[in-house]
UniProtKB/TrEMBL annotation:
Gene3D superfamilies: Vaccinia Virus protein VP39. This is Methyltransferase domain-containing protein. It comes from the Bacteria. It comes from Iodobacter arcticus. Transmembrane segments: none annotated. GO terms for biological process: methylation. GO terms for molecular function: methyltransferase activity. Keywords: Methyltransferase, Transferase. InterPro entries: SAM-dependent_MTases_sf (IPR029063).
């Protein structure tokens, strides 16, 4: 899939990084002829069945995440397309796996028995940083895969990176739009400030009520898990998967003074430079 093709698909489906990540997964592990479980997203049917040539695609969306992040009234990311049939993942029935394309709603942690050993590939992008019970989620993903099946996960930004706070769009009393792309939180500020310290800083830029709301989203909202890069690596190492790739990605240099502050505040933490991680894991035969 060349750059021109990826651009055309982005325009057709109204997507951005999703196409790039899917193209990369296609290059290194492939979708053709495979039964795929997408965790934390729902790529369009034509894209996955015709362009990626998957044999069957089952998408899993977490509505709790979308309810939280869309509660401000503004769209962050790509919410699932509403349909009339909202089937809970935990209540999935075996015959649904005969359909070429499914969307279920729920958590991978609630994997039903009918989904065990059913998939050749699990594809998950921009999702692992939102999964709170990640060790359990990894356990369930392993159960969902057939022997020899693979898990591809590529996600960013993680909590230990410069913009790991994942701020949704919030509008202050003056009408200023603050968001992930226009963040009032300084780089690595969510790691360096205590909540009350960040609140004081934000009050110099906006009204108190909006400052409180941003502090909530940064430090307390369940829409991100706040794991450090080292945490992800260790959880995957303990998961029982065979690790083909565990690669930090998207490196951003940390100013020396900031790095010294971070290392002093989080002794033993090793990596604040990388914004994301790529995992390619395999379920042993």
């Amino acid at each position: 899939m060349d750059a021109e093709k990826m651009k055309a698909l982005q325009e057709e489906f109204g997507l951005s990084y999703h196409i790039n990540y899917a193209a990369f997964a296609q290059e290194i592990i492939g979708f053709k002829g495979k039964r795929v479980l997408e965790v934390g997203g729902s790529l369009p049917p034509r894209l996955v069945l015709e362009e990626l040539e998957a044999a069957q695609w089952t998408a899993l969306e977490e509505l709790d995440y979308w309810a939280e992040t869309l509660s401000t009234g503004y769209v962050l990311g790509t919410p699932p397309v509403e349909n009339n049939e909202k089937i809970l993942f935990a209540q999935a029935e075996p015959h649904l796996l005969n359909k070429p394309y499914n969307i279920f709603y729920g958590h991978i942690e609630d994997l039903p028995a009918v989904m065990e050993s059913q998939f050749d590939l699990i594809f998950s992008i921009a999702a692992f940083e939102h999964i709170g019970r990640l060790p359990l989620a990894l356990e369930k993903m392993k159960l969902a895969l057939a022997p020899g099946g693979k898990l591809f996960s590529m996600f960013a930004p993680i909590w230990s990176s410069y913009n790991g706070h994942h701020l949704p769009e919030v509008v202050d009393a003056a009408g200023e739009h603050w968001s992930f792309g226009n963040s009032p939180v300084p780089p690595w500020g969510h790691l360096l400030f205590r909540p009350i310290e960040l609140y004081d800083l934000l009050c110099s830029k906006m009204d108190q009520e909006t400052a409180k709301e941003i502090v909530y989203f940064v430090y307390n909202s369940p829409h991100i898990n706040r794991f450090f890069l080292d945490d992800y690596i260790e959880m995957v190492e303990r998961s029982g998967f065979f690790i083909q790739r565990a690669q930090p990605i998207f490196e951003i240099g940390v100013p020396e003074q900031v790095k010294a502050q971070l290392q002093a505040r989080y002794p033993g933490r090793k990596d604040f430079e990388h914004s994301g991680i790529l995992f390619v894991l395999e379920k042993k035969q």
